[in-house]
Amino acid sequence: MSFTCRGVLPGGTPCSHDALPGEPYCEKHLGPLRLNPPASPREFMKEWLQTAEGLFERRRRGEKPPPDTWDPELVRTLLPFALPFYYWYWRVEVDGIPNIPAEGPALLAANHSGAIPIDGMMLKVAVLKEHGRNPWLLAADLAFKTPGLKQILRVAGNARADRQETLELLNKGELVGVFPEGFKGIGKGWAKRYQLQRFGRGGFVEMALMTGAPIIPCAIIGAEEAYPMIADLKPLARRLGLPYIPVTPFFPLLGPLGALPLPSKWIIAFGEPIPVAQHGPEAADDTQLVLEISEDVRQTVQSLLKEHLAGRRHAFL
């Protein structure tokens, strides 16, 4: 029995090819893009040096993207500096990479946790390294209003959590990452660890319906233990206009040293894509359907969390 590919062409047209046996996509859409990653540290360094030399040579000639825009060459050159955290500090394991399509619009929907957005950073590194596509992670307005941070986010290939900007990315066939819990997830505290909060009003589902982009559930395990938030300085947060100010067992007790995240064991898992193109773009106005799909995605992410938490040997080993 054959199944239709769950991939989508730019513009929202569902792929008409049959999926490969046991896979969610046809040969065209099946990832990852990086079929032959470096087999040894020496090969990796050789590849990195070639990328860095090419970048510096083009910069010397004055060739570079406009200011405040995505610079893929710079990102690839700087990526190795995040790998010590990825490989040795948090020892990230990744599961389900083939569930991310090799091309066409798609929406990653992940849980959010850890008081500070290190989960977004590791999600970015995992997809770039293990798959090859750039996930345009959506960040809150607060991040884009922080001096200097806006430019870093843009150059790294991220976007503001703005409806029109997100639709433009999906209509161009990009891979977009969203954290539907928002600040409720990342600031929920240790007592509610790995308990998903409400997924807002389903705006991410509406955008998926409008563009036909499949939704890929994503579970991130490890950020909760890396920065265990045991309290929230709400009065001070309100005075400073912040959503929360975290208190951990070590911060602010140990000052700046206490702000360092702990070396927890991480797992990032991608579930099977949830197709929505069959509903058509007009379904974005169906509030009941939007909420049903949103809850389906939330329950799937929660199930992925439970599954991989049960398989993790220890939070720090």
Strand and helix map with partners:
Layout: H1 41-60, H2 72-78, H3 83-89, E1 93-95, E2 106-110, H4 118-130, E3 135-139, H5 141-145, H6 149-155, E4 159-160, H7 163-171, E5 175-178, H8 183-186, H9 203-211, E6 215-221, H10 223-226, E7 231-232, H11 234-240, E8 246-247, E9 267-270, H12 287-311
Parallel strand pairs: 1-9, 2-5, 2-6, 3-4, 3-5
Antiparallel strand pairs: 6-9, 7-8
Summarize the structure in short.
The protein is of the alpha/beta class. The chain has a single domain (81-311), classed as Glycerol-3-phosphate (1)-acyltransferase (3-Layer(aba) Sandwich), CATH 3.40.1130.10.
Essential attributes:
single chain; 317 residues; alpha/beta; Glycerol-3-phosphate (1)-acyltransferase; seven-stranded mixed β-sheet; two-stranded antiparallel sheet; 37% helix; 11% strand; globular
Q: Output the structural class.
A: alpha/beta
Mean pLDDT: 89
Could you list the spans in which at least 5 consecutive residues all have pLDDT below 50? none
Residues in helix, %: 25-40%
> In the residues, how many domains can be counted?
1
CATH superfamily: Glycerol-3-phosphate (1)-acyltransferase
Cα-atom radius of gyration: 20 Å
Could you give the count of β-strands? 9
Distance N to C terminus: 42 Å
CATH class, anyone? Alpha Beta
Q: What's the helix count?
A: 12
CATH fold group: Glycerol-3-phosphate (1)-acyltransferase
The main sheet orders its strands as: 1-9-6-2-5-3-4
Shape: globular
Could you say what the CATH architecture is?
Answer: 3-Layer(aba) Sandwich
The main sheet comes to: 7 strands, mixed
Content of β-strand: 5-15%
